[in-house]
């Protein structure tokens, strides 16, 4: 087991974030991911380690603590995995770059299945030469390794942060290729990614958006307001009419809370309804999401508890005393949409079919981090 | 927008500088959880497997509280240890928790507040909660609002958090609740009236000024009192100054709001989002547990943010099973909905658990059935046991086949033998080990002594224990029913019947309650200072006549809620007033001095103005020496007395001539030999300008003057009748006079009275014209009374189509039957007078008819002036928040009000136009 949390420098920030996550004061996948990166940067910058394993143990401990605090915010774990992956890569290239590149050259299909596609490493070669003198576990100066490596690591974390900050632009940069003129698009909920995507397409195309109002949160109302303010012709419809209007819809665009390893996704409640209706009408379903939502998890058994359940007050007012006593109200936050219902994922890293999500995950994270 | 947001930021920064403090009153100051609380404090009882204190801390942490003072009294050491060992004492939580042990003599929250004051720990606005709070309300938002208010109004000392709930809500306390009178615009709490579940309250009294000063009020009886109060620094010092304040709501809030001297404001925060409730009794323990399990407290739910630090998995149907796979569930056991099972618990085959909470390391035997059961840690439930609606402590052993029917409380460590059958609502605790365990620490000594004496008492009543408890039991059965001996000492909230309403599993269906769908009639009852709010329960709605008897019988007129204490106070007051007047008469004080003395007396004993008036009028009448046989001499005597002392009647704090006449009538009618004096007294008063013709007319018109409602006292009725006849004659005479007199003369006559309201003179002229017309009609319909000198206390009498009846100043008990019989429906003649009343100056109090779900009809009824009926028992949501509409209603709506008032009585509200 790794180090105890309270021995880690910066554990105060970790606990604060954990408490916030637990109390749902930090909600939303991107916000959670951003907060996590910031905490990790703080932890890494203050960490004391003399070899890379110590650092990784520290980050894993922090990550485990955060992910346990709020298992429903998958992006917290994803971000930790991503940071671990980047750090390993940097450390590898810094310490044993020459040997690593040679060994990685052997590329077989079996190895790919096990380890994922090797990343291009040519870029890091000159850097690695510059700090090739780094030694792990230097007995004379145990901090020298950390001192030498930290700038590189901070850079690696900064990469993750930059990616998160630019995710909307990158996802929507190809929007005009997906949305054509005079199309009718249906969307549900108020996903920032989808909103940016649609607005970006509106610069080039003239099209119509139908927004389902997405009860009981009615976040669709905000979405419709925002889109129509941007000059897009927008209709707001009740959730119950999704199936009825599906025959006129050219494309369904969904946001995601998390993309699972099997190509399914966890998305705002109502998405399953829209996706199923789309399938019945053979309407393509497009999911817009940042890469940080890729989650190495499976939901093969349609696990009930994997969905999040909010309080019933938006469904049934608390003041309805007699009903509250006799009626059990269930208010799921998310739907699980299976991979067979999705046609394509549009991410900041290109477009992918559901069947290749597993490959993306293998590329993005290291296998040993799946369990934090 | 930008400037706004930047100023918002500045505010945030300013607020961050101050540490947000909270005070937890960890002691409950009552014994509702006995015997579960034998040997441990209530705040350490677990609910959903985390102690109440942990839930409270979590609720406060959610609000960003940085410093918490925990005021503990009983078992302070346990509380301290619990805080020390909990995750909250770790520095990483960012919360500083300071336990404060108060003296053993702290018997009420008020005492605790005085203790806080003496400790001088409070530096700024703070949050005051009880140690049994479960909440996810954004308290920081309430604090922000409170501070904002404080910036403009230094007297806003407190903001109470309340949560809307239906009257029949499981989480709303049936035993102890309150009626809130709010200003819907500012959410200021204008009045608070504590309400007990038993005896059921049917009235609340709302001071007249509130209705006069606020054009719109909400009268709410559907709030859950979350007992979260954001208080200013001066709150503890107010407790210090008023040493008799015990309870925060009943004494402090009520006291502050009704005090003429403090001039402080209390506000309410009606929490729209979020959940907050306190576990004040076993019934709310049940309700709050269920609320937690059905996720109303989200995100404070077992699978998300469990305050005890357990992690549970949420399964379909709100079942919560620990994530660590430590629970062993047999393949054939049944786990029903809304169930929480603690870690390391074993559930054997064929056991069935439904809507229950099972603690850690429990064993549920084969075939056991648990329904609405709450079982603490380390308890064994034997094979085939049946537990329903009960709370079972930790380390309890139930033998095979024990039946625990609903309402039982079984304390820690009890062993119940095989096959025992408990009765409903049994309370069982463990027998003491022969020598009481050596005192580990001195401070616990007192607790134990208390408890010892209590247990000794319990031990005396063990005749039927073996029969109930089965063999090999180590338990004591607590006495059932009400403890007769100390009934009197008990606060009426802790009265047995009231406690029953707060007991788990007790539906109290045998108690007569006004709860659950009581109806109301728009009975009018007005008082010189208080308009009493009637809410007749369904059962009593047909007996409104007998209810209105209270007018005739002064002693019955006291507010229902404080009957006992105020009755005593009034007797004392009456004798005091009599003595004071006696002195004044004897020693020839000036009228002013006598008035001051009376005011002081009234203040001291807190009685309504009417009492004072009764006393003064009575004293004056009794002062008049009886001269038998010489009418002229008698008249002289009366004139002398009235000239000397009459002005006192108007100097006691309010001017209300109609009431004066009525009081005089009642006094003369009751006084036997002085009955004959009535006419002459009335004339004397008239000549002294203490009453004028309209007042007499108004009095004459009121049902009370005819002796209605007085049924039990034939002599009195007789007397009243005679006086009424005398009044009729006098009126006739006056009517003739005015008929004869020319218009100018009548104007002249009005002139002195018009002094007080000079600007209204012109209008009055026109009104008096109509008036005399009406008078000459000779019908019962009386003229619209002219605005009385005290405009503020006479809300829009003339907007009502039955002006005199509904006039708040008149001591009139409105009663529909009589009214309908002797009053023709709204006469068009009275309507032209309406525009003459400036609508804004005349706010009309509202009627909140229970049977009026449609807002329009409620509004229509609301225009009926000065009559407010508030459902106390069970308001349905729309009715309970009946808004008091302004009197600016149009003529149509005045017709509507007519409809509302008449049909409201008969129970079917047809609604206004």
Description:
The complex is a heterodimer of chains A (372) and B (913). Chain A is built from 15 helices and 11 strands. Chain A is α/β, with parallel strands linked by helices and 372 residues long. In chain A, strand 1 (184-188), helix 10 and strand 2 (208-212) form a beta-alpha-beta unit. The relative contact order of chain A is 0.11. Residues 99-104 and 121-132 of chain A have low confidence and may be disordered. Chain B has 913 residues and is α/β, with parallel strands linked by helices. Among the domains of chain B are: 2-154 and 225-233 and 272-282, Spore Coat Polysaccharide Biosynthesis Protein SpsA, Chain A (Alpha-Beta Complex), CATH 3.90.550; 311-477, Hexapeptide repeat proteins (UDP N-Acetylglucosamine Acyltransferase, domain 1, 3 Solenoid); 557-740, Serine Threonine Protein Phosphatase 5, Tetratricopeptide repeat, CATH 1.25.40. Chain B is 37% helix and 16% strand. In chain B, the strands form 8 sheets. Chain B has a 10-stranded mixed β-sheet with strand order 5-4-1-6-13-8-14-10-9-12, sandwiched between helices. In chain B, a hairpin with a 3-residue loop joins strand 16 and strand 17. In chain B, helix 4 packs across helix 7, helix 16 runs antiparallel to helix 17 and helix 18 crosses helix 20 (693-701). Chain B starts with a helix and ends in a 7-residue tail after the last helix. The A-B interface holds A 6, 11-12, 15-16, 19, 22-24, 68, 70, 72, 304-305, 309-313, 318-322, 324-325, 328-331 and B 61-62, 92-94, 163-170, 172, 222, 273, 275, 290, 294-299, 303-305, 311, 313-318, 337-338, 877.
């Amino acid at each position: 087991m790794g180090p105890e949390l309270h021995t880690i420098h910066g554990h105060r920030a970790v606990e604060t974030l954990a408490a916030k996550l637990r109390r749902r004061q930090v909600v939303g996948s991107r916000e959670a991911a951003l907060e996590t990166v910031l905490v990790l940067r703080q932890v890494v910058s203050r960490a004391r380690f003399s070899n890379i394993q110590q650092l990784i143990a520290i980050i894993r401990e922090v990550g485990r603590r955060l992910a346990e605090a709020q298992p429903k915010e998958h992006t917290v774990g994803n971000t930790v995995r991503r940071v671990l992956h980047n750090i390993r890569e940097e450390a590898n290239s810094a310490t044993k770059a020459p040997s690593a590149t040679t060994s990685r050259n052997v590329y077989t299909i079996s190895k790919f299945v096990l380890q994922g596609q090797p990343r291009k490493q040519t870029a890091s070669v000159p850097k690695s030469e510059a700090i090739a003198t780094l030694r792990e576990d230097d007995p004379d100066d145990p901090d020298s390794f950390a001192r030498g490596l930290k700038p590189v690591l901070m850079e690696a974390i900064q990469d993750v942060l930059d990616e998160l900050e630019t995710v909307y632009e990158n996802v929507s940069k190809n929007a005009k290729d997906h949305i054509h003129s005079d199309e009718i698009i249906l969307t549900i909920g108020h996903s920032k990614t989808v909103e940016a995507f649609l607005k970006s397409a509106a610069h080039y195309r003239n099209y119509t958006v139908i927004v389902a109002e997405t009860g009981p949160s009615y976040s669709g109302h905000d979405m419709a307001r925002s889109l129509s303010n941007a000059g897009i012709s927008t209709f707001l419809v009740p959730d119950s009419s999704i199936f009825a209007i599906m025959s006129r819809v050219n494309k369904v665009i969904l946001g995601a809370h998390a993309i699972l390893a099997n190509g399914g996704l966890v998305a705002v409640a109502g998405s399953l309804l829209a996706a199923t209706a789309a399938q019945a009408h053979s309407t393509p379903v497009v999911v817009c999401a940042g890469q940080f939502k890729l989650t190495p998890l499976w939901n093969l058994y349609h696990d009930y508890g994997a969905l999040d359940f909010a309080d019933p007050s938006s469904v049934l007012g608390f003041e309805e005393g007699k009903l509250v006593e006799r009626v059990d109200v269930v208010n799921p936050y998310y739907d699980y949409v299976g991979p067979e219902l999705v046609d394509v994922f549009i991410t900041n890293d290109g477009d992918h079919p559901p069947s290749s999500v597993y490959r993306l995950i293998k590329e993005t994270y290291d296998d040993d981090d799946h369990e934090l | 927008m930008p400037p706004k947001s930047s100023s918002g930021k500045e505010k945030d920064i300013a607020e961050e500088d101050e540490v947000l403090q909270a005070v937890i009153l960890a002691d409950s100051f009552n014994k509702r959880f006995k015997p579960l609380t034998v040997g441990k404090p209530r705040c350490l009882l677990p609910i959903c497997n985390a102690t109440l204190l942990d839930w409270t801390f979590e609720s406060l942490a959610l609000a960003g509280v940085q410093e918490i003072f925990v005021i503990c009294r009983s078992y302070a050491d346990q509380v301290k240890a619990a805080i020390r060992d909990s995750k909250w004492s770790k520095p990483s939580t960012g919360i500083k928790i300071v336990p404060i042990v108060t003296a053993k003599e702290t018997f009420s929250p008020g005492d605790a507040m005085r203790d806080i004051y003496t400790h001088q720990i409070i530096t700024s606005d703070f949050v005051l909660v009880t140690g049994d709070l479960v909440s996810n309300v954004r308290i920081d938002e309430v604090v922000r609002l409170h501070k904002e208010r404080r910036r403009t109004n230094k007297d806003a000392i407190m903001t109470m958090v309340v949560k809307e709930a239906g009257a029949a809500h499981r989480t709303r306390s049936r035993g102890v609740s309150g009626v809130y009178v709010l200003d819907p615009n500012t959410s200021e709490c204008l009045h608070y009236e504590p309400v007990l579940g038993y005896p059921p309250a049917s009235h609340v009294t709302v001071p007249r000024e509130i209705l006069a000063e606020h054009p719109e009020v909400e009268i709410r009886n559907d709030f859950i009192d979350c007992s979260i109060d954001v208080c200013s620094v001066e709150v503890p010092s107010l407790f210090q100054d008023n040493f008799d304040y015990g309870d925060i709501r009943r004494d402090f809030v009520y006291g502050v709001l009704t005090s003429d001297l403090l001039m402080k404001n209390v506000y309410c925060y009606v929490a729209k989002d979020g959940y907050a409730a306190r576990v004040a009794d076993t019934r709310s323990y049940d309700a709050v547990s269920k609320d937690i399990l059905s996720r109303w407290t989200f995100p404070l739910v077992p699978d998300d943010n469990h305050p005890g630090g357990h992690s549970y998995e949420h399964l379909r149907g709100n079942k919560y099973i620990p994530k660590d796979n430590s629970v062993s569930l047999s393949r054939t056991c049944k786990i029903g909905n809304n169930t929480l099972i603690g870690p390391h618990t074993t559930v054997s085959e064929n056991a069935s658990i439904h809507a229950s909470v099972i603690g850690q390391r429990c064993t549920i035997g084969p075939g056991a059935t648990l329904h609405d059961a709450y079982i603490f840690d380390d308890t064994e439930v034997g094979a085939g046991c049946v537990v329903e609606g009960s709370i079972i402590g930790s380390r309890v052993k139930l033998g095979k086949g024990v039946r625990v029917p609903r309402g039982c409380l079984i304390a820690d460590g009890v062993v119940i033998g095989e096959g025992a059958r408990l009765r409903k609502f049994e309370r069982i605790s463990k027998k003491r080990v022969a020598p009481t365990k050596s005192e580990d620490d001195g401070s616990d000594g007192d607790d134990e002594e208390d408890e010892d004496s209590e247990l000794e008492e319990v031990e005396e009543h063990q005749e039927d224990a073996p029969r109930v408890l089965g063999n090999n039991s180590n338990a004591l059965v607590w006495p059932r029913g009400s403890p007769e001996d100390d009934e009197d000492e008990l606060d009426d909230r802790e009265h047995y019947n009231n406690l029953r309403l707060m007991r788990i599993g007790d539906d109290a269906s045998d108690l007569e309650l006004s709860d659950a769908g009581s109806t109301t009639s728009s009975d009018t009852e007005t008082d010189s200072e208080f308009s009493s709010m009637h809410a007749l329960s369904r059962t009593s709605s047909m007996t409104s006549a007998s209810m209105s008897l209270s007018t005739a019988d002064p002693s019955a007129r006291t507010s229902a809620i404080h009957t006992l204490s105020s009755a005593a106070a009034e007797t004392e007051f009456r004798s005091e007033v009599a003595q004071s007047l006696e002195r004044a008469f004897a020693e020839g004080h000036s009228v002013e001095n006598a008035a001051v003395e009376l005011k002081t007396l009234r203040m001291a004993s807190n009685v309504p103005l009417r009492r004072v008036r009764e006393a003064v009028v009575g004293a004056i009448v009794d002062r008049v020496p009886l001269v038998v046989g010489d009418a002229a001499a008698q008249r002289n005597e009366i004139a002398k007395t009235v000239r000397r002392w009459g002005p006192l009647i108007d100097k006691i704090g309010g001017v209300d001539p109609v009431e004066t006449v009525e009081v005089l009538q009642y006094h003369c009618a009751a006084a036997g030999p002085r009955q004959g004096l009535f006419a002459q007294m009335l004339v004397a008063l008239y000549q002294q300008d203490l009453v004028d013709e309209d007042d007499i007319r108004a009095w004459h018109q009121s049902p009370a003057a005819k002796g209605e409602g007085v049924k039990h006292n034939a002599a009195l009725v007789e007397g009243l009748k005679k006086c009424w006849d005398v009044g009729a004659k006098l009126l006739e005479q006056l009517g003739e006079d005015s008929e004869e007199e020319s218009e100018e003369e009548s104007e002249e006559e009005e002139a002195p009275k018009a002094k007080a309201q000079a600007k209204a003179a012109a209008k009055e002229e026109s009104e008096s014209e109509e008036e005399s017309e009406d008078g000459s009609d000779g019908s019962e319909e009386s003229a619209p009374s002219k605005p009385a000198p005290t405009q503020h206390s006479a809300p829009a009498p003339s907007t009502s189509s039955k002006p005199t009846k509904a006039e708040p100043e008149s001591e009139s008990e409105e009663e529909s039957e009589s009214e309908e019989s002797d009053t023709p429906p709204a006469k068009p003649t009275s309507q032209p007078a309406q525009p003459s009343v400036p609508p804004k100056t005349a706010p009309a109090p509202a009627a909140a008819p229970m049977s009026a779900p449609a807002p329009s009809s409620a509004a229509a009824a609301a225009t009926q002036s000065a009559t407010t009926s508030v459902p106390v028992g069970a308001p349905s949501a729309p009715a309970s928040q009946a808004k008091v509409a302004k009197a600016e209603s149009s003529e149509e709506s005045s017709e509507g009000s007519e409809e509302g008032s008449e049909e409201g009585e008969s129970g079917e509200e047809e609604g206004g136009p």
